[in-house]
Amino acid sequence: MRQKPKEEGGHAKKRHTAHMVRGVCIHCNKEGDGKPKLTQGYPIKDDYVIGIIRWLKRKTRTEQKNRLVVCEKHADEHEKKRGGFERSLIIYGGIGIFLLVILLLLNLSFGSLIAGLLLLLFLVVTAHIKYVPKAEGI
Ligand SMILES: [Zn+2]
After folding, report:
1. Mapping DSSP to helix (H, G, I), strand (E, B) and coil, where does residue 3 land?
2. How far is Cα 138 from Cα 136, in angstroms, rounded to an integer?
3. What's the predicted TM-score (pTM) here?
4. What is the DSSP letter of 71?
5. Which residues in the chain land under pLDDT 50?
6. Ligand 1 centroid, distance to 103 Cα (angstroms)
7. CA 89 vs CA 28, 82, 92, 103, 114: distances in Å
């Protein structure tokens, strides 16, 4: 409601609309009254994070049967956010591997390896603060 839909410039990307299915847009859901509205959109791909969330929801019995999608209106925004997440994952992972190598160069030991791997794991997990799922066709 707050945001006016932006006019698309002439460079609007062609997307694979063939993938589109009916579901609840993960971005629309956070706006308005918060009630899930069914819309046509690009399906969210299942990955390990979605798997964990689904498992947690099953355990807490808050699972929704709706299919998650990204609607056409949010496709550009989603692409940008997903790109940002992928970039931070690469950067954090790169820093982690760099630190692991430094630790091993300073002191080649099993302790350094474990410390370095824990650091790498911590950084990769931290990168998931910006987690955005992949959507098919975007
Ligand atoms: Zn949307």
Report:
1. coil
2. 6
3. 0.79
4. E
5. 1, 4, 6-10
6. 45
7. 25, 11, 5, 21, 21
